[in-house]
Write a structure and sequence with these properties.
Elements (H helix, E strand, L loop, with lengths): L2 H33 L10 H5 L4 H12 L3 H14 L5 H23 L3 H26 L1
Subcellular location: Membrane
Main location: membrane
Pfam families: MAPEG
């Protein structure tokens, strides 16, 4: 295993986690749609249809969508560090910590969804991502 491969592990792990959330979203959403006899009308905006689902069902989809927001910056920064050959323990620990907090954020949002706690998890993961970005900036500038 090369040094840059070590930096790619958290990237692949977060992509895999996104698929876990994708599956969880559909495993809860499809039965809820069926129980409610929701008519999937192409004339009704999808958001309007999905807003009819119970909140506990929507939380999974909300989190799945969130995994395409800040984590896209993580992918760019982590891939940049891997290309730069930075697989130092500091960068790898920050990357894994970011992934770990995103997983905790996902589970929390999908099950409890207390906004204050969810925001704290988001803010902490964002600070880790900022630190990782600073490391990348120091390497390229």
């Amino acid at each position: 295993m090369t040094m840059s491969t070590v930096m790619l592990q958290p990237v692949v792990a977060l992509v895999l986690w996104t698929f876990v959330m994708w599956l969880w979203m559909y495993v809860t959403r499809i039965p809820a749609i069926q129980r409610m006899n929701l008519k999937l009308d192409p004339q009704v905006p999808p958001r309007e249809l999905m807003n009819q689902l119970p909140a506990r069902v929507r939380w999974k989809a909300d989190n799945y969508n969130h995994l395409f927001e800040m984590p896209t910056l993580f992918y760019a920064v982590a891939l940049s560090l891997a290309l730069l050959g930075d697989a130092t323990s500091g960068s790898v620990i920050l990357a894994w910590a970011y992934v770990g907090l995103r997983v905790v954020h996902s589970v929390f949002q999908a099950t409890v969804n207390k906004i204050e706690v969810r925001f704290a998890l988001f803010a902490l993961s964002s600070l880790l991502l900022l630190a990782l970005t600073v490391r990348a900036a120091m390497a390229v500038f």
